[in-house]
Design a protein that fits this description.
The complex is a heterodimer of chains A (about 110) and B (about 120). With about 110 residues, chain A is mainly beta. Chain A is about 0% helix and about 45% strand. In chain A, the strands form two sheets. In chain A, strands 1, 3, 4, 7, 8 and 9 form a six-stranded mixed beta sheet that branches. In chain B, strand 7 and strand 8 form a beta hairpin. Helices cover about 0% and strands about 55% of the residues of chain B. The chains are: A mainly beta (about 110), B mainly beta (about 120). At the A-B interface, strand 7 and strand 8 of A face strand 5, strand 9 and strand 10 of B.
Chain lengths: ~110, ~120
């Protein structure tokens, strides 16, 4: 059971906009920034969004993040087939004193 | 170019010891924390712990404290993750990541550890 809660799956058709939610608590998302990672099949995770809504250099602006209270979300607009991957949210937890991850959301592009 | 290159896949028997490595290049290795993350087969990511190679300050997740040892040799820009007695449940992919603040901005390619009798 992951500390952060994500839906196990999401799907969309090319060109669509999809959102992935991430729910936590006051000790993690409520008091710290949220980061998102993309893991393409058979590869290492890659930083997608940091500090709630910042994109690293090279990440398309189709990807955006937001946070409100103890929840966060990742939005992907103009969905493309190459976006098919697992997406993980993460945040520092002040009570557990560890970085906690969501269980991951498998995105399927139909 | 920042790179983290991990050592190759390992196949071990239960009870054996193991040390895997993560070599950083393209940046000041002693100025960033390095974290280790476990991914068991078909499962999600788990944060194991971090080390600051500059002074070897190390923090562990309570879930992994006592189960693994994280170390670093700054003279060769390499971080390590080691086990003294492997179990079948240690079978997983292990990733290192450079920590920029609270997030891993660069990741190694992963080291697959298989523990089987």
């Amino acid at each position: 059971q992951s500390v952060l809660t994500q839906p196990p799956s999401a799907s969309g058709t090319p060109g669509q906009r999809v959102t992935i939610s991430c729910s936590g608590s006051s000790s993690n998302i409520g008091s710290n920034t949220v980061n998102w990672y993309q893991q393409l099949p058979g590869t290492a995770p890659k930083l997608l969004i940091y500090s709630n809504n910042q994109r690293p250099s090279g990440v398309p602006d189709r990807f955006s993040g937001s946070k409100s209270g103890t929840s966060a979300s990742l939005a992907i607009s103009g969905l493309q087939s190459e976006d098919e991957a697992d997406y993980y949210c993460a945040a520092w937890d002040d009570s557990l004193m560890v970085e906690v991850f969501g269980g991951g959301t498998k995105l399927t592009v139909l | 170019e920042v790179q983290l290159v991990q050592s190759g896949a390992e196949v071990k028997k239960p009870g054996e010891s193991l040390k895997i490595s993560c070599k950083g290049s393209g940046y000041s290795f002693t100025s960033y924390w390095i974290g280790w993350v476990r991914q068991m087969p078909g499962k999600g990511l788990e944060w194991m712990g971090i080390i600051y190679p500059g002074d070897s300050d190390t923090r562990y997740s309570p879930s992994f404290q006592g189960q693994v040892t994280i170390s670093a040799d700054k003279s060769i820009s390499t971080a390590y993750l080691q086990w003294s007695s492997l179990k079948a449940s240690d079978t997983a992919m292990y990733y290192c990541a450079r920590q920029e603040g609270t997030y891993g901005d660069y990741w190694g390619q992963g080291t697959l550890v298989t523990v089987s009798s």
